Amino acid sequence: MPRASRRWRAPRPRVSISPSRSPGTWNRPASARPDRAPGAPTVLPSVFACTGLSRARACGGSRLGPGSGGPARDPPAGIRGEGRSELRAITGLSAFLVGAAWLAAPACALPDPSRNVLWVALQGCLIAKRTTGRAFPCLSVDLGDRDRPGTAILRAPGAPTHLVVMPTGDVPGLEAPELQRPAGNAYWRAALAARPRVTVALNGRLPVEEVGMAVNSAGGRSQDQLHIHLDCLQASVRLALQNHAARVTSGWAPFPVPLQGRRFLAMRVRAAEAEAFNPFAALAHLPGHATDLRAVALAVASTPRNDPEPGFIILANRAHGSFAGELLLDHACMAAAQAAVR
What we know:
There is one protein chain. The chain has 342 residues and is of the alpha+beta class. The chain contains seven helices and ten strands. The chain has a domain at 177-341: 2-Layer Sandwich (HIT family, subunit A), CATH 3.30.428.30. Strands 1, 2, 3, 4, 5, 6, 7, 8, 9 and 10 form a ten-stranded antiparallel sheet that branches. The radius of gyration is 20 Å and the shape is globular. The chain starts with 55 loop residues before the first helix and ends with a helix.
């Protein structure tokens, strides 16, 4: 099967699907990654138990994909008969291709396999989309075209409101040079369009304006495939935006107060300009000395409802160590829970 040429990085387990790739974290932050609740629905292979940074050593020696020793998983309810057979065939093909790519890589150059779990799951989505028209285990897959890169949406295991939007092509993180070009805008627009899925998961109890987006820094992520997290915003972040968003302008400047104990730079994007905006390109113009984008975390929130200039607040943190912009999100969605009680 032909393999696409790409820039050199340490080998990672691949599933080559077509002769060409589209241009172009799956993780909870290491400090905020609770174990999946007992009995929570499983929509991804059990190998996702190895995604945590703290579990890399324990999982680093295991094979990726089905057949790695984890318990067998049935397809979601409603997929029976022919659909079940198709999914098993897809899973088996994915495991074979991933295993072949893994064994073919030089032993001295093998990367940490736990950092490629999201990539492997994505390949299963692409195979399913191209062979059966289904996107499983993803929620949706847009294969893109010559002028528009493909994107996929995946739900975190056991977390109905936590989604990630990612390229279907090989993009390691927000530091990737190709994100400075139109592809960055395409992924941004795909993330904006995916926000209503979070509100649907909450039966409309949360306005789409209270859905936040985040991309972790290289040191704050556990997966080396770009993914934009979507979920509810932390209540403290919403309150800070309510009180201080009026002081945020169209250029980068320090946000008046810390968010989750960290200082951020902030800028405003008006609603009329959002469609053409590229947040990744904007990060390249952070004030001060030249910025290593591997050390930058990104977060996005809608302006408060009463803001005279509706749009988005873009937040950037330049971490000296590692930081997960995802910490500004609330995966428990306490705001929606409180709305349900009211």
